[in-house]
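Hey, I'm writing a tutorial for new members on how sequence and structure tokens pair up, and I'd like a real worked example in the thread rather than a made-up one. If someone can provide the structure for the chain below, I'll link this post from the tutorial.
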Amino acid sequence: MAALRRAVGACLRRRSRAAAPGPGGRKAGPPPGPSGRGLIGRTVATALPLYLTMLASTAGGLVDTALLGRHATASLAAFALTMAVYTPATATVAGALRGVMPFVSAHDDDPDALLPVVRDGLWLAIATGLLGALAVAGVPLIGLASGVPRQTLSELGAFPYLMAASVLVAAVGNAATSTLVGLGRSRLVMRAGMTGTATAVVLSLILVNGVGPLAGLGLPGAGIAMLAAATVGATVAHAGLRRCAVLAGRPGRRTGRPQVRAVIRLAGVGLPLAGTVLIKFAVLGVLAVAAARIDPVNAAAHSISVSLVGLMFAAAVAVGQATIPLLAPHVKAKDVRGVRAGVRAGVMTALGAVLLIGGVLAVLRVPVLSLFTHDLAAREQVRALLPLVLLVVVTDALQAVFGFGLVAIRDTVPSLLAFAVCYGLLALAAVPLAARGGLTALWLALLAANTLLVVGQAAFFHLRSGRLRRSGRPSTAPGRTPA
């Protein structure tokens, strides 16, 4: 009997040791994944605040356009010239900083490993923000070289330099918001974004056209408002990050000398994303030129259609970002099935969101289109194009979610290659197709390019995610080595 008791006791002790969590407080092996419906619910809960933040930012930008249009046509032209450089510059910086998200998600329970990621992400933000700021500060030279009228250039004044400072401040803010997204704290991102947008709207109303005895500043007033908004948003984001449970009360520094290898490792994920953003903006610019070559009505219809795409596509971007922290436990556990299930849930969520928003826009198409133009011909052109526009958004949303799946596994070069090929072909074909087949042919070409992107992104994600199970390297923070 004594021997039997010893044998049973030894067996129970072995089972207890096998069931005990490791040093990090989590059980070894893949985390128990929720059902498909549970994944979709968690994705929606994380993505919704991000989407609302993007919508608020878009609406805030329209306020400046409306106010400057009422102030002076030359001021609006100078604003449009600067924003043609500012918008892709800030989008590129934000794209580069999305590469920080998977590194943050990998250490959401380890402050000692997370602090170096936050520090190096801030240095990446400063480096990319300075490059974007230089591009925006060069707007007067860009305008002069491209033949912009002297009257428009003379209206620029200090506005490009205010916006250059805004790029740098926004980059510092993006370092915090990318970290918050990686930690799954999207409500804090919404708080920062909404506060910044509210600041921009209030100050623009006061500074652009003036209030009461206060004279309006015009274009410089819009620049001051946008710089103040970026500063407020960045401050709120960093304050929220400081209060996060994983970092609250930590004595470690979030600034200091950069670890060059660690920053390069972050950039290795982020810079290909920045490259995809630049390619997309450049090719969309080619499409705008191709549409403008047809006639003014088609150019207006194309511009309105692109704006509608932006409203719907923002939902897919929000969903894609929301999947990154949800996939992190599966990536760390090398759980290929869990990673793929998370991306499938993201695909279903993005598809549902785009179809829902698209359906609302289709039902309300008359009042929605009247907000953009009073030209009946342009509105009819957009209405005829709406089914094709919806298909373009659906394919764009699908490729984006698969692209964020590649971000989650820190392998973004395939996305850059896919965009370079598909959108490169689209750029070459855009002008001849528009000349022969009009706006419909142009959007059919965009649909074909996006469809090829869906195939390419999905194939790359399936191939590269399958390598997780063959990889024996544990996830570590940049600049750190496994113990």
